[in-house]
């Protein structure tokens, strides 16, 4: 085996580290992207019984965006295992308690049918903000692209650019905003 073939084989079988930013992302759309990397679906050697997935570091889970009125209507089920231990928690309440839990549950659900999903979830590293331990950041070699573009806030845009932006109309001097 030549040196280049050996390096190619090592790269194929190695577990790489990916990073994903959840800012303004729908957790259910993002979960399918993250699932591919956790399970190794993006690799040519993938097989359902082969554990060839990668590590994924997910940051800013506190800034996810659920569509519509999902914050008020979506409920999550939990059971303690004891009699009468069933409970339903609304998404906004669950997000207040643990900002990483909605993303974790979305990814776990996206891996339905994976016989090793509990083992696969151990390679998922969730953080509510962008403070990741230095040891993990040293391992990261790839970034998973966000499905939604994050809009730029108006207060972060240069004031000169806002002033020079073309206007549809100018309000009269005596116009009163209510």
Write the layout of secondary structure elements.
Layout: H1 3-13, E1 17-21, H2 27-39, E2 55-59, H3 70-73, E3 75-79, E4 86-90, H4 91-97, H5 101-110, H6 117-120, E5 124-126, H7 134-139, E6 140-143, H8 159-164
Parallel strand pairs: 1-2, 1-6, 2-5
Antiparallel strand pairs: 3-4
Compact summary:
This protein is of the alpha/beta class and 178 residues long. The chain has eight helices and six strands. Helix 2 (27-39) packs across helix 5.
Explained architecture:
- This protein is α/β, with parallel strands linked by helices and about 180 residues long.
- The protein has a single domain (about 5-150), classed as Ribosomal Protein L13p, Chain: A, CATH 3.90.1180.
- Helices cover about 35% and strands about 15% of the residues.
- It has 8 helices and 6 strands, in the order H-E-H-E-H-E-E-H-H-H-E-H-E-H.
- Helix 2 (about 25-40) crosses helix 5 (about 100-110).
- The chain is flat.
- Keywords: Ribonucleoprotein, Ribosomal protein.
- Belongs to the universal ribosomal protein uL13 family.
Distance between the termini: 76 Å
CATH topology: Ribosomal Protein L13p, Chain: A
**Biggest sheet features:** 4 strands, parallel
DSSP E strands, number: 6
Order of helices and strands: HEHEHEEHHHEHEH
* Architecture (CATH level 2) name: Alpha-Beta Complex
Question: Approximately how much beta-strand content do the residues carry?
Answer: 15-25%
Which residue ranges are poorly predicted, with pLDDT under 50 across at least 5 consecutive positions? none
Rough outline: flat
Count of helix runs: 8
Q: CATH homologous superfamily - what is it?
A: Ribosomal protein L13
What share of the residues lie within helices? 25-40%
Whole-number tally of structural domains: 1
- Spatial order of the strands in the main sheet? 5-2-1-6
Overall CATH class:
Alpha Beta
Instruction: Round the mean pLDDT to the nearest integer and report it.
Output: 92
Structural class: alpha/beta
Tell me the Rg in angstroms: 22 Å
């Amino acid at each position: 085996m030549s040196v280049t073939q050996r390096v190619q084989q090592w790269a194929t079988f190695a577990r790489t580290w990916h990073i994903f930013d959840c800012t303004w992302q729908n957790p259910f759309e993002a979960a399918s992207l993250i699932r591919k990397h956790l399970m190794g679906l993006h690799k040519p050697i993938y097989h359902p019984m082969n554990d060839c997935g990668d590590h994924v570091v997910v940051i800013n889970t506190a800034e996810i965006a659920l569509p519509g009125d999902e914050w008020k209507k979506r409920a999550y089920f939990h059971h303690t295992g004891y009699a009468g231990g069933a409970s339903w928690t609304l998404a906004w309440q669950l997000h207040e308690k643990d900002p990483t839990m909605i993303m974790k549950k979305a990814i776990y659900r996206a891996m339905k049918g994976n016989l090793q999903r509990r083992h696969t979830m151990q390679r998922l590293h969730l953080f509510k903000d962008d403070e990741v331990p230095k040891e993990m950041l040293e391992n990261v070699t790839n970034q998973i692209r966000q499905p939604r573009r994050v809009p730029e806030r108006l207060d972060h845009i240069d004031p000169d650019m806002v002033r020079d932006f073309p206007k549809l109309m100018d309000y009269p001097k005596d116009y009163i905003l209510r």
